[in-house]
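Sequence in, structure out.
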Amino acid sequence: MLDNTELPLVLIGGTLCTARLWQPLVEQLALSSVMCISLTGSDSAPQAARRLLQNLPPRFLLAGFSLGAIVALQMAADAPERLAGLALISVNPLADAPENASSRREAVSTAHEQGLAEWLSAKLWHKYVAPERLGDPALREIICQMAEESGPDTFASQTEIAITRQDNRVALAALSCPIIIINGAHDPICTPHHHQLASASAVRLRRITVHTAGHFAVLEAPDEIAPPLRQWIQESLNAT
């Protein structure tokens, strides 16, 4: 087991995600200190970042997935000195287009009416995973289960975070800690182009593309993500 007690790994999940998202990866990383965080109770990335920073240790390793990566970037902007390392998985570093707001909020209402699992299966499943995983019932069940556990109120507040997010690439460029960016090659939500934009913003950065995965690379390919992520953790620990 790798001893990171003094620099715990903080994992921030994405929209409609719970700690289940990280479980296969955490088992492989074998760390002494891990904190899994679901985004609840905040209506903007700055608000979520403030709440987390108030309660987290003085310094930590930070990894975010999708919406969690957006909040992680906000934390990097607000308190770069607190980060010993930053990992962004399935990230879109850009601000959301204003015209997306109405359709995003309409989706929250529709999902509430139809049930989160049913709505997700119909509207998002085909965008979430690589084509060869579309017929994977176990993977689909985990993602739907996380959505049901999250609930419609959490989905509504997470949607506001997505709508009001900022472009924090300047903050990413200013970071001095080790950075790793991981993306799935088959991700139509946070595309390879989005990851190229994020990668171009930082100096001490390593980018990994998982060619067998889509948006949910964390669950699709934990075996491929764990080794480079563990290397990033070791580099971050050594740097301090």
